[in-house]
Amino acid sequence: RIKMQENENKENINFEEKILKSKEVLEKLTKSDITLSDSLKLYNEGLKELELAQKLLEEARLVFTTQNKS
Q: If we measure between CA atoms, which residue out of 45, 58, 68 comes closest to residue 15?
């Protein structure tokens, strides 16, 4: 049970980190001096971070649902 809680805490931190990273990318994308090439790189980076955050959220939901059924 303790190991599961540690994993949940780690996933929460990773999820929060992914969201914060995505916000940072968004802030960079809104700057007017960004090149098209850089904006494409940042856009793809942001999408990757959000996809990973979504995956973490789905995994946490699965763990929560499984625990509630027990």
A: 58
In 3D space, the residue among 37, 40, 42, 10 whose CA is nearest the CA of residue 24 turns out to be 42
Rounded to two decimals, what is the model's pTM?
0.69
Residues 31-69 pLDDT 10s? 999 999 999 999 999 999 999 999 988 988 888 788 777
Contact between 52 and 18 (Cβ < 8 Å): yes
Pull the structure tokens for residue 51: 């996809």
| Residue 33: DSSP 8-state | T
Token pair 């700057």: residue = 31
Query: In this structure, which amino acid lies at residue 17?
Result: E
Apex 5 CA angle, 56 and 12, nearest 5: 35
User: Backbone dihedral region of 34: left (phi > 0), alpha (psi from -120 to 50 degrees) or beta?
Assistant: beta
